[in-house]
Design brief:
Structural class: alpha+beta
CATH architecture: 4-Layer Sandwich
Number of strands: 21
Largest sheet: 11 strands, antiparallel
Strand order of the largest sheet: 1-8-7-3-2-10-11-20-21-9-17
Strand content: 25-35%
Number of helices: 11
Radius of gyration: 21 Å
Distance between the termini: 47 Å
């Protein structure tokens, strides 16, 4: 592999356009009814500037996974990926394979689950086009026939958004009290010079009284929380199902077939408001806030350093700094860092150089990871990890799994977090946490 891309395949990738536009949600449910939802990967998006495409794969051809133990290195397993179109996730605790002397939590979720799909369905959300891609033209034509015969009214039978999930047992007061106490501890560590910043998170759990389809739960969530780097991936390992549902607005790492790299760290958040004047004031306050600007710039510097491990000297630039991006529930500050990967490095080297993401750890990164381990006291699993996509041409894309839900054993784990710096006010940071956490909980009601 060179330039972070897989060697070009000898076989031509065939493409067929579907006759009519069908919303990705309907097509996902329709095909899941035929192939089953286990093994489904749907990298969803929101038709925004960074959300032009969605990708859907079912009935995977090959699956690679790594259990979360001390014998199964997920980064070594990634090297088994051959030519094709791949989608999956990599968990936060995969970091233990890069920094084994540091403490890491034990997670019940797979540290890596990734599958190849042929065919794959690509949605151009802006042009309202659906393209089927794959090796076999015959197989593509069969899929085309199946999709062209699809009846939307019948698909509605597969959709179940009348899901009841009881969130009454979540004790926000306890979560908030612990969160504020941990902020004080982080600020003390910062004042002692131990770290400069840490991304502190919290977790709550909800029990599913019924065995709902994961795809139904995601449909319910996305009605309120569409995002440019969202989606759902459903794995089945040793007969047990586990899934990751995301409404993430943040890209982690992207490479194109020429080896150019992009990362889009998010730091700084304010709530949206139904009153346009208040909403605009919230946005202005975010843009001008010294604390949020400093926090974002700190992570930009961290990512520049990470990219410097695998990128050509002089190629790294900050193309956008402190740009306002607005979503359904929050405003964010986003920056963009770009570079060119070295000829002898791959996207796996890039991933290892930057893992876990700086925006969800802190600075210095490894020291911040240690403090996160001590203070949070729970596993993150796929949360704060990444969805991963490798396209036919070897180009690579990934998100940061923030604003995400982890499902296993009829338990939904919901996470949210904030970056803490020396100027952080525990009450204000806790309010920011609730801006992020409460919409997630509300989306399940």
């Amino acid at each position: 592999m060179k330039n972070g891309k897989i060697k070009k395949r000898k076989m031509k990738i065939n493409k067929i356009k579907v006759d009519t536009w069908i919303e990705p949600e309907y097509l996902a449910h329709f095909l899941a009814s035929k192939f089953g939802e286990e093994g489904l990967s749907w990298l969803d998006s929101d038709n925004s500037e960074n959300g032009k495409y969605s990708f859907l794969g079912l009935n995977p051809k090959k699956i690679i996974y790594s259990k979360n133990d001390d014998l199964d290195n997920p980064f070594e397993r990634l090297k088994e990926i051959k030519n094709g179109f791949w989608m999956g996730w990599l968990s936060y605790e995969a970091g233990k394979w890069l920094e084994p002397k540091q403490p890491w939590q034990k997670s019940k979720m797979a540290s890596l689950w990734i599958a190849s799909y042929d065919p794959v369905i690509k949605f151009n959300l802006q042009k309202k086009e659906i393209i089927l891609e794959g090796n076999s033209l015959e197989t593509l034509k069969k899929y085309q026939q199946i999709i062209n015969k699809m009846n939307i009214k019948e698909v509605m039978k597969y959709l179940n958004k009348n899901i009841t999930i009881d969130s009454s047992k979540i004790n926000l007061d306890n979560l908030n009290n612990k969160f504020k106490k941990n902020i004080i501890k982080i600020k003390k560590l910062i004042s002692q010079g131990d770290i400069f910043q840490a991304n502190l998170t919290t977790k709550c759990e909800l029990y599913l009284s019924e065995k709902y389809k994961y795809l139904d739960i995601y449909s319910k969530i996305r009605d309120k929380l569409k995002a440019p780097f969202g989606g759902i991936i459903i794995a089945k390992i040793h007969g047990k199902k586990e899934g990751v549902l995301s409404t993430s607005p943040e890209r982690f790492l992207k490479t194109d077939k020429e080896g150019y790299v992009e990362t889009r760290p998010i730091k700084g958040t304010r709530p949206r408001h139904h009153d346009k004047k208040i909403d605009a004031l919230n946005a202005i306050e975010l843009i001008t806030n010294e604390k949020d600007r400093a926090e974002n710039i700190m992570i930009v510097d961290l990512l520049r350093n990470d990219l410097g491990k695998v990128c050509e000297i002089g190629s790294i630039i900050v193309s956008e700094l402190l740009k306002l991006e607005s979503y359904a529930k929050v405003h964010h500050l986003t920056s963009v860092v770009r570079g060119k990967i070295k000829q002898d490095k791959t996207w796996i080297d890039l991933l290892k150089a930057c893992w876990p993401g700086g925006s969800i750890t802190g600075a210095p990164k490894i020291r911040a990871c240690k403090r996160i381990y001590e203070l949070e006291g729970f596993e993150r699993g796929p949360y704060c990890g990444s969805f991963i996509k490798i396209d036919w041409d070897g180009s690579f894309d990934s998100n940061i799994l923030i604003r995400s839900f982890i499902l296993k054993d009829q338990i939904i784990k919901v996470y949210a977090g904030c970056g803490i710096v020396n100027d952080s006010n525990p009450v204000e940071e806790n309010a920011e946490l609730n801006w992020k956490l409460l919409p997630l909980i509300e989306s399940l009601k």
